[in-house]
Every structure is written in structure tokens, then in C-alpha cells.
Amino acid sequence: MGGAIARGLAKGSIFSENEITCTAKGTATLEKLRETNPGFTLLTDNQQAVKGADIVVFAVKPWLMKEVIEQVRPALLPDSQIYISVAAGITCQELQEWTGSSSVIRVIPNTAIEIGRSMTFISASDLSMPQMKLAEQIFSELGNTMVVPESQLAACTALASCGIAFAMRYIQASAQ
């Protein structure tokens, strides 16, 4: 999902390709990104990646989120950075505790984000109005967005991601 978001952002007007930094554990993933977007800064060092960033997108599996945040925590600037999580099930409260920041956003996109056709649900905690507008602007460039209460994100996840796949499988099976 992280790669899809990065590639989608590079096609938009808010960020240029050379303003986007991506990390991965392995160089194979980074090489795939380099083939499609040679202007990305590609690193295997998460701490180096977050230094000086205005926005940090945590696009890792939910069971890795706390570990990754703890790894980069010494390089985070909680008073000046915005943190965005795409991990399902990780609450704003947990993100605030782990990052030490109140400026956290949860988003539930789908893979169509890469081509600007995602339906992305956004929930935030303690964001200023300009920060919230920026988050909406960023994800609106990548498809449709809807701001929802955090309590509704589980339902949104089912609708925007796996729920659609199950519905399509049902339609396909019925047609066969």
C-alpha cells in the first residue's frame, strides 16, 4: 500500500517525485520503485527517512506498527510533523502514545490509490483545521475521500477494501 500511495502522490500536483522518500526492508522492493519512479529517495533506514519530513506515512502491517514507530521515535519531531497510518485496527490513541504527537491521522485507502481512483476514509485526532484540510487535499488527489469518526473505520475498511473483493467474487460465482 505504501508504494501505491507514493506512486499516486508522484502523479499529483501536491508533491513532486523528488520530495517523496520511501523505505523498505529489502532492496528488491526499492528497485521496483526505482524502475517506476527514479526521482524517489529510496532508503532501508527508517530513521533517516523521517528526519526533516513534514509528513510521515506509516504504511506497514498492523502487527509491525509499534515496532517501526519505536525504531524511528528518536528521529521524530512530534511538534512539527503529521503522522498518517494506513494500518487497520491501530487507533489514534495508540498512534499518539507511540509517536508522542497529537497530530495523527488514520486513513483507509484501497489499491486504486495508485491511479487516483481510491475511496479513502480519513479519521483524525486533535488536528488543527489546516492540518485536516491538508490531509483531505492530499488524499482527494488520489481519489474520493470521506472524513468519518474513528468508530466507523472498521466498517469503512470492510466496504472500501476487502468487502468489494468479496462482493465481486460472489457476482463472479453467481455468473458462472
Architecture overview:
- The chain is 43% helix and 18% strand.
- It is α/β, with parallel strands linked by helices and 176 residues long.
- Strands 3-4-5-6-7 form a five-stranded mixed sheet, sandwiched between helices. A two-stranded parallel ribbon has the order 1-2.
- It is globular and about 55 Å long.
- The two termini are 31 Å apart.
- The mean pLDDT is 89.
Could you give the topology of this structure?
Blueprint (H helix, E strand, L loop, with lengths): L1 H10 L9 E3 L3 H10 L4 E3 L2 H5 L4 E4 L6 H8 L9 E4 L6 H8 L4 E5 L9 E8 L3 H12 L2 E5 L5 H23 L1
Parallel strand pairs: 1-2, 3-4, 4-5, 6-7
Antiparallel strand pairs: 5-6
**Quaternary organisation of the protein chains:** single chain
Give the spatial strand order of the biggest sheet: 3-4-5-6-7
Please bin the fraction of helical residues. Answer: 40-55%
Largest sheet: 5 strands, mixed
The helix/strand class is: alpha/beta
**Alpha-carbon Rg, integer:** 16 Å
Q: In percent, how much strand structure appears in the residues?
A: 15-25%
The helix-strand sequence is: HEHEHEHEHEEHEH
The count of strands amounts to 7
Number of helices: 7
Report how far the terminal alpha carbons are from each other. 31 Å
Mean pLDDT: 89
Overall shape: it is globular
Uncertain segments of ≥5 residues (pLDDT<50)?
none
